[in-house]
Amino acid sequence: FDAIQQKALKVGAIDSIVIDAQDEFADHYVAPVIKANALYEGDYPLVSALSRPLIIEHLVKIAHAQNATAIAHGSTGKGNDQVRFEAAIHALDPEMKIEAPIRDFHWSREEEIDYAKDHHVPVPIGKKSPYSIDANLWGRANEAGILENPWNQAPDDAWGMTVAPEAAPDKPTFLDLTFQQGVPVALNGNPMPLAAMIKQLNQIAGANGIGRIDKIENRLVGIKSREVYEAPAAAVIMTAHHDLENLTLERDVQHFKPTIENKLTNMIYEAQWISPLFDALMAFIDKTQAVVNGTVKMKLYKGSAVPVARQSTHNSLYDEDLATYTSADSFDQEAAAGFIKLWTLPTTVFEQVNHVHSEEKQHD
Ligand code: ARG
Fold it and tell me: How far from 167 is each of 24, 140, 203, 228, CA to CA, in Å?
């Protein structure tokens, strides 16, 4: 935080306000993503998308406190983040002006780097590795440079939070994750705030080569882009959460929930975090999470994080006496034959009338 502040003051800011929003980010932005199993296009845990409304919330507050009339951001004109920043600004203060110099000057990456050099702005990239990196508690996103050709494999220097799976330890690591109402609250039995847990898991899972995602994605502005992500803690937590839902959610809820999840996920990606539909859909998700309580044992090994055991003292719907094939069986097998008759009645009647699949076909 100090380095960030020093950098701002050194390049000419008249003031620099640093806000530690890690707990807020974890509790109010990451927790909904966990509860909603929100993975954009199946695998991206929304690392950057998620941070934008929170950044703007604070920027608008500071702008008001300073009587500022404009907010600036450094997005280009080709990405999703400009939309997320500006959508949130419009929602929170429609009067606020927006300055987006890199977009509005049509600067290329090279011109940005030249400007930074000329004005002594320290940037951790050069023209040889012109990566565009965005990182926070929940993960790291990296695009541009050599990654722009999707046939190029991401080189070692593209990664920053994880070791390569083949360089990970030869022994697995086992972790117990305890959830309350769909949110992880303890690691190996030790209660801790979500932000602290994410940090620990980023270390542990990153060291096991977990959480690398090499992705071609559909941007909101219509282009496909290639980006590599790292989200080690997210990989562990979200896999464990989904496993616990398998144990505790009633079947119809479990089968319907992905429909809502998919909409919510796209809304987060597509700059609609601040919207009445988002709040309403999230209320549905929260309702489902009341029973998602319990512990999942995860096995971390060379790039994979898999659940290997789970339990829920009060909310497990798994009934060993119903599931067992031993003599302890309490399932009413007599009921099965009648169930099957009625379950198949509509197709049985259709077939008797139309003979589409049975041998003797009848035509009018
Ligand atoms: N494509 C991701 C998203 O839209 C990440 C955007 C920021 N990435 C970056 N490398 N600067 O959510």
Answer: 34, 20, 15, 19
The CA distance from 279 to 159, in Å, is 35
Ligand 1 centre from 48 Cα, in Å?
Answer: 6
Tens digit of pLDDT for each residue in 151-199?
999 999 999 999 999 999 999 999 999 999 999 999 999 999 999 999 9
Instruction: Output the CA 141–ligand 1 centroid distance in Å.
Output: 6
**Band (329; pLDDT cuts 50, 70, 90):** confident
132 C-alpha to center of ligand 1: Å? 8
Task: Characterize 259-282 residue by residue with b for buried, 16 or more Cβ atoms within 10 angstroms of its Cβ, and e for exposed.
Answer: ebbbebbebbbbbbbbeeebeebb
Amino acid at 281: L
Beta bridge partners of 297: 176, 309
Is the separation of the CB atoms in 54 and 25 below 8 Å?
yes
The backbone region for 85, taken as left when phi is positive above 0, alpha when psi lies in -120 to 50, beta otherwise, is: alpha
Residues 185/292, Cβ–Cβ less than 8 Å: no
Name the E strands within the chain: 70-72, 97-99, 132-136, 139-143, 173-180, 183-187, 190-191, 212-218, 224-230, 294-301, 304-311
φ, ψ (nearest 5 deg) of residue 214: -110, 110
Which of these, 272, 245, 243, lies nearest to 256 by C-alpha position?
245
- Cα R_g (the chain), whole angstroms: 25
- Residue 192, judged by CB atoms within 10 A of its CB (0-12, 13-18, 19+), counts as middle
Q: Is the CB of 48 under 6 A from ligand 1?
A: yes
Output the six-digit token pair for 300: 């971390």
Cα(339)–Cα(344) distance, integer angstroms: 9
Contacts from 344-349 at CB under 8 Å and sequence distance 24+? none
What is the band of 126 on the pLDDT scale with cuts at 50, 70, 90?
confident
State the Cα–Cα distance between residues 228 and 309, nearest whole angstrom: 30
Ligand 1 and 227: CB distance under 6 A: yes
